[in-house]
Amino acid sequence: MTTPKKLFIKTYGCQMNVYDSERMAEALGGQGYVETKTPDDADMILLNTCHIREKAAEKVYSELGRFKGLKAENPDLKIGVAGCVAQAEGQEIMRRQPMVDLVVGPQSYHRLPEMEAKTRAGEKALETDFPEEDKFERLKNRPKAQRGPTAFLTVQEGCDKFCAFCVVPYTRGAEVSRPAARIVDEARDLVERGVREITLLGQNVNAYHGAGPDGSDYTLAKLIWDLDKVDGLERIRFTTSHPNDMTDELIEAHGTCSKLMPYLHLPVQSGSDRILKRMNRSHTAESYLRLIERIREARPDILMSGDFIVGFPEESDADFQDTLDLVEEVNYGYAYSFKYSTRPGTPAAERAQVDPAVADDRLQRLQALITRQQRAIQDGMVGRTVSVLFEKPGRLPGQMGGKSEYLHAVHVADARVERGDIAKVRIIGAESNSLAGELL
Ligand code: SAH
Ligand code: SF4
Ligand code: F3S
Fold first, then answer.
1. Helix, strand or coil for residue 147?
2. 0.85 exceeded by the pTM?
3. Which end of the chain is less congested by CB atoms within 10 angstroms, N or C?
4. CA-to-CA distance for 8 and 10, rounded, in angstroms?
C-alpha cells in the first residue's frame, strides 16, 4: 500500500476562498493526498491567496520565503500558489520565487490533478485561463466525509460591476452562475453529511441568474425557495450582495422564508454621493438608505452589516462626514471598514491619493463609531431569546458555542447541547465578542 501524500493548504481572503480550498483538497484527494495541519511534514503546500488589498497580496511572498528551508530539507516538496494573486500575477510569482512549482487561478482549479502530476514529473505548471466550463462539476470528487453543521456553497462567481477600486472583476472574471439543480443537489449532499446551515456565496450573490429547472434564467430568491424545501436544511444565508441587485422578491423572501436568516451583509463603501459616483457604485447614499428601510419593513429585526472604504482618492472631510452620517442612520450590527489600498490596473489607482495619515485618522473614527453601534446592539440582546446553531466547544471547559440567527456568537455552559443542535437560548450577558446564554 502506498502511504498517502500530505497536503497543507493555507487560505487567505474571503469565504469563497474557503470553499475553493475545500474543493481543491477534495480534488487532490483523488491524487492520493490527505490534509495535514502543518507545513512541516507536507509533500505539497498550497497557498490560496487574496489580492484585494496590497497587504493581502504581499503576505504571499513573505509566507513563501518561510518555506525556503522546508524545500531545502525536502526537495520533493511541491509549492503551489492558487487564488486571486495567482490570477493577477501569474508567471511573475515564479519569477519572484523560483521555488514555486505551480500557479493556478480560480477558474482553473479543475486542472489541478493534471497540474500536480506535471510537477511530480519535475515540470512547472501554470494555468490562469478563464475556460468556458463549470469547474465545480469537474471538481466533483467528493469523499462522503461527515461535515460540521455549517457550510459554504458557491452559487455565483465573478463580477461585472467594476467598482473603480476593486480587483475582483479581473481576478474572478465575469459573473457566472451555476445551474440551480446542481446547487440543490450539492445542498442535499451537504445535509446528508451533517450540514444544517448553508451560506450561499457569490461576489455578487444576489445577481445570481443560473439556469432554473426549465432552463430559463432563475433568481436568487427562487433558488432560496427551492433550498427551503430541502429536508434537514434548517438555515440559509447568502453573501455578498450588491445594493442594486436587491430585488423585490428577495426582500420579500426575508419576510416570508423562515429558513432565511435575519442577517444581511450589504456593502455601501461610502456615504458620499460624490465619492460613490467616483467609485462607479451606481447607487446613492439615499437609495441605499431607502432600500434598507424596505428590507426592514419586510423583516423588522434584520441585522444589517456593511463594508466601507475610507481614504478613497479625493475623499474630503465633508465626504467622510457623509459616511459617518450614513452609519449613524443605518445602525449596523456588524461593519467592516478598510483603508483604501491602491490596486494596480484599477481606474482609481491613477487618481490623487488621500494623505495616509488623514486616511488612518478617518479609519479610526469610523471604526470607533461602528464598534459603539455593534456593542449597543449586542448589549440590547441581553434578556432576549434567540435560536442558536451549536458548532463547537466554547473557550472554557463545558461550554458549547454557536451562532444566533443574527450571526452573533453565543455560548452556553450546558452538558445537554451537542454539536449540530439548534436550541432556544435566553441571552444573559454580553461580552466584547460574544453573548452568554442559557438554554430555555
Ligand atoms: N463583492 C463584494 C466584496 C468585494 S471585496 C462587494 O461588492 O462588496 C470586500 C470588500 O473589500 C469590499 O466591499 C470593499 O469594502 C473592500 N475593498 C475592495 N477593494 C478595496 C481596495 N482597493 N482598498 C480597500 N478596500 C477594498
Ligand atoms: Fe468589487 Fe464592486 Fe464587484 Fe464588489 S461589486 S466585487 S466591490 S467590483
Ligand atoms: Fe480576495 Fe479574491 Fe476573495 S481578491 S476577497 S480572495 S475574491
1. coil
2. yes
3. N
4. 7
